[in-house]
Amino acid sequence: MERQKRAKPLLSMLFLVALSTLAGTCSGAGKPAASAAPAARTAPPKEDTAREQRWAQQLEGDVVVGKARQLTAKGTRFLSLYTRQTLASRKGAVILLPGMGAHPDWPGVIHALRVKLPDHGWSTLSLQMPLLPSGSPVTDYASLFGVAAARIQAGIDFLHKQGVKHIVLAGHSLGAAMGAWFLANHPKAGIETFVGIGMISSTKKPRLDTATQLAKIHIPVLDIYGSEDLESVIKSARARATAARRAGNPDYRQQQVTGADHFFDGLEDELVRDVRGWLRHVTHQTGQQS
Fold it and tell me: In this predicted structure, which of 76-90, 196-210, 240-254 has the lowest mean pLDDT?
């Protein structure tokens, strides 16, 4: 765990490098001239399963809090980290979706939620989302949303087998975009609440347009991001809120955390507290027993 804390600045930098093309994608930078010949159709990018396997081997031996569980989706095994609640009362479980190129115990947002929510009655199940080779632009990940959806469903099925009745979906960055797309296209999956943290957005790829997805989601949603977040997250905030409200979702809340960057670096405890507060608010509204 200490090794992960030391590695956090480097991991965060690599994460930001991987997302650096998103701002250009959203603004139209690099768009070919109208007279340019149509680009040749290319094959969908291949998943980086080798990196998944390396991380799985490392995490299975290093994880101190929770247990590594191998789940299966579309015939492919993938890693998840399951951490049971430590309180006598079971409030439910939160499925966590890491960001682009991240693993299920990624330092910062995902690790903090994964290990701290169980102390407040919420089990957590953090899923390995499909990976592309390092350096792939975020727009290439749109082709993997179907794979991500199958993994989310596998997580839901796993939790049902554990006797969990109330399931929350929470994603960070690209994981939030994947979660929004899943909910927009699988409204009867059994997810009761959605938490999107630093939801990236791009109108160049329909699956990455989180505002469009939020317009189709009618369960309680917490859309939380930092005042120092990525440009695409901040600039799309108004569109996300407008879409959710036009869809008539009375349980949509958008919250900006002052001073927080895309990773809530140094503000992880505040993020956990805000997410806990939202879950407490929602469960109180619905009359869910703690």
Answer: 76-90
